[in-house]
Amino acid sequence: MKDAVKPVEAPRPLELLAPARDADVARAAILHGADAVYIGPESFGARAAAGNSVDDIRELCEFAHIYRAKVYVTVNTIVTDREIPVAVSLIERLYRAGVDAVIVQDMGLLNVDLPPIELHASTQCDTRTPEKARFLEEVGFSQIVLARELTLAEIRAIHSQVKVPLEVFVHGALCVSYSGRCHASQALCGRSANRGECAQICRLPYTLTDASGAVLARDKHLLSLHDFNASALLKDLAAAGASSFKIEGRLKDAAYVKNITAYYRVLLDAVIAEEPDKYCRASCGRVSHTFTPNPYKSFNRGFTSYFLQDRRPSRLASLLTPKSLGEPLKSLADVRNGDGLSFFTRRGEYAGFMVNGISHGMPVPNKPVQIPKGTAFFRTTDVAWHKLMFRSDTASRLIGLDVVLYDNRIEACDERGCRVVLPHALPMEEARNPMDLRGQFDRFGGTSYYLRDFKAAIGDNVFIPASALSSLRREMIAAIDANAAAIYAHSYRRKENTNARYPQSCLDYRDNVANAKAKEFYKRHGVTEIEPAMEVTPGKQAAGTVLMTSRHCVLRELGICLREAWAAGKRLPELPLKMKGASREMYLKFDCKRCEMQVTL
Predict the structure, then answer these.
(1) Which side of the chain, N or C, has fewer Cβ within a 10 Å radius?
(2) In this structure, what is the dihedral angle of CA atoms 140, 144, 146, 152, given to the nearest 10 degrees?
(3) β-pairing, 242-247 with 36-39?
(4) 595's torsion region: left (phi>0), alpha (psi -120 to 50) or beta?
(5) Which residues of 485-497 are buried (b: 16+ CB within 10 A; e: fewer)?
(6) Bridge partners, residue 208, by sequence
(7) 245 and 272 in contact (C-beta within 8 Å)?
(8) For residue 58, which phi and psi values (nearest 5 degrees)?
(9) In percent, how much of the chain has pLDDT > 70?
């Protein structure tokens, strides 16, 4: 008996997912290589300052779908009982607008009558285990955004248990707490991060003392992490099972999104080109950039690959400043007037200035500032770069078109699989010299196409007036545009398995159950005890309330990891530790077995 032949698997699409604060930024992201964009609607988005009308999103969908790029809309706040009908109405309008998926956190939205739109599980769902991911798949999610804190091994373990695509962050700002489980802003400021109003308490300076009053750190940004940069690990992430590579930054401007999207497009294309039997592009169109992408040119707090390679990395925080470090400078040779430079003083304080010129090899500040000898500079503003990035011609994206011209018809097909056949009655005359038909036809300026291949099956020495060819070309483009729009295929919501069981039987306020529909959903899936979300039970929180849970450890960052210090016989700080700053006071607790830190009241 012969061994069964294992079927050859089709290459897995790798999706580059870019942020968009508005439709213009989304279009720029797509032109610079994004396979998909995520954008906030007029309400219920986890960035309250980045809302967009459904009409604008509808127009964006029409543009994105030309390139088979997708539009995901963030309806990912928790929702109150009174808001449920409003959220449902919004999702219905988004569905009619042609949106490819909505990203949600609140499970109450799975327990109402929604249109059959594809659902993605938000980062706010805090998916860190195979059990949680498998549950989300079983209840109808088509794509799962994994927690930022995972290692490659943990991503691989989750991938082995689910069939739906896994989405991972690869670049941008990091939340110090597990997403969806940060309640510091709500408890201390009355502004819920789970409702799009994060007060960014983690970016503030704090003084850290132990129980004896000993100062362990003074006025340091203990919770402000470097920015994520997994660009060196894209191949490893793909091998671990990641299919969607997400850039953070839904409040970023077009210059940032252009640069970072272009940077990852080049790198992801290289991964695909190296193993085309395993991976393929998730959208269409040849992307060309007029600049060399450089992540250091855009806002960054310094970079980290976070926990991808190391469960206990030693340096994660930008202790001295939450502001952008920009680009480390090895030379001042190309610094120009108007550039912004920053540096750290001998006391470790962050300082910066605009450049008024260069004198004797040193920048001339626009204001009085002491610059110690041997100072290392960072360029936070590159005037020439920003001027370039705000041009409208920094990228093009064109769809390859193959054309065959016969004496009575023209046939065209493109890389999207669109095909049209149009009859024609072109005036043809015999010519003494061969006509450059391809050159005459290859004039697609102002369209989304380029002529990838052209054949003329009409014989030699034929002359056709250029005006007739132009008219036929326009008719062909209109027909293929209409065909592409007509055959665009949406995906739809997966069916819920009502027998699926949630991995926990008890939920507390950190699980963000804010409405009766969510409560019903969890009970249907085996949860027996449910505490309501902090946002719907306003009032002063009790001492000891957990505000954040994090894999980042302040003590490890300061070089005094409790596990290592105890093993080495070193003096341990007296617990509990207190962080104080700007009228806020919080405490730190440490679960060394899990290697986690909690920030509490």
Answers:
(1) N
(2) 110
(3) unpaired
(4) left
(5) eeebeeeebbebe
(6) 217, 579
(7) no
(8) -60, -45
(9) 98
Note the residue count of the chain: 601
Tokens describing residue 475:
């008719």
Residue recorded with tokens 């291949």: 453
Half-sphere exposure of 221 (CA within 13 A, CB side): 22
How far apart (Å, rounded) are the C-alpha atoms in residues 37 and 69? 8
Q: What is the three-state SS of 525-560?
A: CCCCEECCCHHHCCCCCCCCCEEEEECCCHHHHCCC
Single out the residue of 138, 113, 108, 126 nearest to residue 519, CA to CA. Answer: 108
**Using one digit for the tens of pLDDT, what is the confidence trace for 91-119?**
999 999 999 999 999 999 999 999 999 99
Token readout for 488 is 């665009």
Closest CA to 16 of 38, 43, 46: 38
Which of 209, 227, 176, 129 is CA-nearest to residue 598?
A: 176
Amino acid at position 183, single letter: H
Per-residue DSSP letter, 232? G
Q: Give the tokens for residue 224.
A: 């402000």
Structural contact between residues 469 and 424, judged by C-beta atoms closer than 8 angstroms: no
> Measuring CA to CA, which residue among 46, 39, 92 is closest to residue 69?
39
Are residues 473 and 417 in contact, defined by beta-carbon separation less than 8 angstroms?
Answer: no
Contact between 534 and 183 (Cβ < 8 Å): yes
The stretch 536-549 carries a mean pLDDT of 90
Q: Minimal CA–CA distance to 257: which of 41, 16, 32?
A: 32
Backbone CA torsion sign across 40, 42, 44, 47: positive
